[in-house]
Design a protein that fits this description.
The chain is of the alpha/beta class and about 350 residues long. It contains 10 helices and 13 strands.
């Protein structure tokens, strides 16, 4: 596929105890790299889309390793800025049975907080780019990163690049949902695809529980209409998750285009790792939008991509286009086109 996608966000090192141990129980940690937008870029690359990342890494062995990780997945690193003192870290305790996973961030004053718009050659960076993808996590990393991200999105919009936004609300990065909605609204406005939605009433934010019987199409459309009618978003996509335990879940994907709400098949699976499932979903949806698939093809492929990611250790999706295509709940998505 000739269309290019670029993502902007922090690459981090993840440290995880082995064998589902808690940090207090272990003296050994597994290392991998990831980060919301990085995960999307790598997922897209494995799906046959030429992808690049805008991020920053320090000039030390950890920064060099992070960049080598991106290159090992054929990610274009021309816009990886080398500056700052440290790479962001996060510690992750894997969930098991009834025990949920736990994330501990150590990313304050990381390299990306020093990035500035002058560090990027905008003209060459955005040459032939179809979509810029960003998440709400990046907007929560401090005022400097927020200013940089807003300038980058503004430039992309000005030259006709489509904007993809994964809201990815993280309570640990904002003072509350009201601040988050205020920050994200100008990014979301007139975007091409938004994963998740902003509440019209910022004082009434809650995550939809996929196990509830009252999650009707009417309720969902009422939530999504604010995005399409007031904020000018072309597509809104999300998943409904149901879990009988931490290690066994189901997903149903949803996409809304301002007129019709389309649901995917229901995917049920055991999990090796939950981290990165939403990013794999975003990568799959973006891949099929680039292919100009119909809404059922788009949401079926994206949800299958997310389900497959749960079988892969680490943060990133390694599934190929053909593998996802063969896993979809409908079998007539057309021929493979890469």
């Amino acid at each position: 596929m000739n269309k290019r996608v670029i993502t902007v966000g922090e690459i981090m090192m993840r440290l995880t105890p082995k064998n589902n141990l808690k940090i207090s129980q272990t003296n050994e940690l597994e290392i991998c790299f990831g980060g919301a937008e990085v995960n999307v870029a790598i997922g897209l690359q494995h799906l046959g889309v030429d992808s690049a990342v805008i991020t920053a890494v320090p000039n030390n062995e950890i920064g060099h390793s992070a960049k080598a990780f991106l290159k090992s997945h054929d990610i274009n690193c021309d816009s990886v800025v080398v500056k700052g003192e440290r790479l962001g870290l996060y510690y992750y305790e894997e969930g098991c049975s009834l025990r949920n996973g736990n994330v501990i961030y150590d990313r304050k004053h990381s390299s990306i907080t020093d990035i500035e718009i002058e560090d990027i050659d905008l003209e060459s960076t955005f040459k032939d780019v179809e979509i810029l993808h960003i998440s709400g996590i990046t907007l929560g990393l401090g005022s400097g990163v927020r200013k940089f991200a807003c300038e980058l999105v503004s430039y992309a919009k000005s030259i006709g690049v489509k904007i993809s936004v994964d809201l990815n609300y993280r309570a640990k990065l904002f003072s509350g949902y009201e601040e988050f909605a205020e920050v994200m609204k100008p990014i979301v406005e007139d975007s091409y695809i938004c994963f998740g939605w902003l509440n019209r009433d910022v004082n009434n934010f809650k995550v939809l529980d996929g196990s509830r019987d009252d999650i009707t199409d009417e309720l969902l459309i009422n939530n999504f209409k604010y995005m399409t009618e007031d904020l000018g978003v072309k597509y809104v996509a999300t998943t409904l998750r149901v879990g009988s335990s931490v290690n066994y879940n189901s997903l149903t994907g949803l996409i809304y285009d301002g007129k019709n709400l389309v649901r995917s098949s229901k995917y049920e699976f055991s999990m090796i790792s939950r981290i990165g499932g939403g990013d794999a979903f975003a990568a799959g949806v973006i891949r099929m939008l680039l292919e100009e698939g119909n809404n059922l093809e788009v949401i079926e492929f994206g949800t299958a991509c997310a389900a497959l990611k749960h079988s892969i250790k680490g943060d990133v999706s390694l599934s190929s286009y053909e593998e996802v295509h063969a896993t979809t709940g409908i079998r007539n998505l057309g021929s493979v086109n890469r």
